[in-house]
Amino acid sequence: MALSIADLPKEELFGQGNAGCGGCGAAVAGRQAMKALGSRTIMTIPASCMATMGGSNLKTTWQIPFYHTLFEIAPAVSSGIRAALEVQGIEDVNVVSWAGDAGTADIGFQALTGAAERNEHMLHVCYDNEMYMNTGGQTGSQTPMYAVTSNMSKGKTIKKKNMLAIMEAHGIDYVASASIAYPLDLIAKFKKAAEKPGFSYIHILAPCHRGWQIPQEKTIEFARLAVESGLFELYEVEDGLRTRNVEPSFIPVEDYLTPQGRFKNLTPEAIQSIQAGVNRHYGRGE
Amino acid sequence: MVKNLPVVPTAKAGSLVETPTGITWRVQYPVISEKCNMCLDCTLFCPDGALIQQEGKIELILSLCKGCGICANECKENAIQMVPEYSGVQGVFR
Ligand SMILES: Cc1ncc(C[n+]2csc(CCOP(=O)(O)OP(=O)(O)O)c2C)c(N)n1
Ligand code: SF4
Q: Which one of A29, A130, A194, A207 has the fewest beta carbons within 10 angstroms of its own beta carbon?
């Protein structure tokens, strides 16, 4: 049966009073995900905006146990938490590590690939704002080509690394991409991941208006444009079976890219090559 | 037997609600009109959990709102209007 917003739990396990910027996409991702995960969840978060946003030692927005780990180790800490729960015979708890794109694809990658290889009973979430935002918006492997960042004023010159494909290659239980503009799709994916006996990976595109240089009220809008243009495909891989969850309407990629301040250096040729890449991926005529 | 989670919290759960960090930045706040058809989209798009469903209506918890305007931008019925205000250490001026 299809999910409806009215049936979701009313409890606010994350988000109220959070210390993030107004209009933060990562905070939206956290709120939507917790509607699926529920109160029997233990969360580890490495250094990132999401960790900062959760509060300090004195105050927190989390209503569940939340542990702020060192940058490189969130999935390893979560593996340990799962082992400790198992030893105590506690079975009804979701163990989650939740990291930014740097905590997932770059600095945190070693612990992530290890936990995935061991097929630990846990979920790793990457909320992808395509930059190192908590330290001022530096370039990382998830920054798209051409995007201007605080340490690459002319724009990135190499392509974004495909983390979803890398995680799929681990042969884990569940891999999915999700977007904060499609909350019911996102929530359904978290529910699926929570049911798996092994490792799941969910990659959420969560725009950061500061880094992307867009108006703060347009955070959700740009998350949607990324999907509708075909640049961020919403799909899942379950038992080796790949399913596309949302068919894009294929708005021109230009409509997604050029309004963003970080793509101010985009040339018409670059836009054309990005559009050609999308067309190739979906097998559409060029 | 289900045991309690073996975690010793250092901060009281959800305690940031009492002193929300962002409200002193707010320069506008949402006003919801009768055009609202209770689709509830805004309750999932608000980053701060400031819009909640209560007694068949969308209610704003003003103290949690940072005034980002996502709700007004996303509302398909155009039922949310952002109204300018100043809220800071000096109080709230509308
Ligand atoms: C080992 C280590 N290196 C660097 C840092 C500094 N640092 C803290 S957060 C951060 C960037 C986080 O980026 P990301 O994971 O993408 O999350 P975001 O802040 O963008 O949400 C960095 C470099 C650190 N805390 N620890
Ligand atoms: S810098 Fe970006 S990701 Fe970090 S809290 Fe602000 S809006 Fe969110």
A: A194
